[in-house]
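Feature request, filed as a ticket because there's no other form

It would be nice if the structure record came with a short human-readable summary line next to the tokens. Right now we just get the raw output. Example of a typical job, pasted below so the devs can see what we mean:
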Amino acid sequence: MKITFLGTSSGAPTRYRNLSATAVQPERGKPWVLVDCGEATQHQLLRTPLSPLRLEAILITHIHGDHCYGLPGLLASCQLNGRTAPLTLVGPQAVWEYLQAVMQFTEMRIDYPLQFLPVNEKLDVSAGGFQISAAPLSHRTECWGYRLRETQVPLQLNVERLQAEGIAPGPGYAHLQRGEDLQLADGRWLSSADYTQLSRRPRVAVIAGDNDRPELLAGLCEGADLLVHEATYTEDILLQVGPEPQHSSAERVARFAEQQRIPNLILTHFSPRYLSKPRRQGDRLVAEIRAEARRHYSGQLQLAEDLASWLISRDGMLLPL
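Raw output as currently delivered:
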């Protein structure tokens, strides 16, 4: 399971950070899923091996521009590049209305099947090698977090049970292991589900939109290997800014991840005021976000960088690529 950050800035881009967009890929195959689509996301894709033509679903967390202004351009480019495969768009109803207005007034044409699914707490959609669900968050507008659980986990065959029931090894074993039901020569049907189990635990990543109450993700994060969450500010700046923007600090997200025992945490969506290197005295640094989170979280901690990729290994480790 692979995570690639296409944009990691909040509100406005910087020289080194584009706006929110995160690609998620399964272990095998080229299909993938995109979470949010800030302005110029398609430009960022040109710097990666990811193909927009293999994109199967776009999950928008909320209508704010730094999370969805890149959507019309990406969809239009898919049309120009000859896309014919269906594409699923998930998000608040306002996202669909925004897209429809852009299509109307710019004469944007989309011929490939584009299915919109309004996000809600009952969301259960399969795309890009993942089973996707959602939970509502706390922000100035309707906002959601998404849980992506991998579905392409090989099955393990219960050979002992098959042999105990007198079913000899043969080509039928392979059918059952692929998840296919099997009819025996005597007419009996064997259900693959009765003779197989997952060979390992499916990996799970939770990617949240803007949110000032990390605890709202408790249900979605149950059993998760990775949480990707905004840390727009350090706690001191958040207190100065006040509650109105409804964002989180590194401290608040780190405390939540520690309480939930989430093994891997990647912080993203940093205010442009935080720089990688100081330009003048008094500049705030991204390193402060890391230091604050580390004081409250003992798991594996990373700060997202544009175009950086991370692998969640089969044993749940977060490895740089």
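Something like this underneath would help us a lot:
The two ends are 12 Å apart (CA to CA).
The chain has a mean pLDDT of 95.
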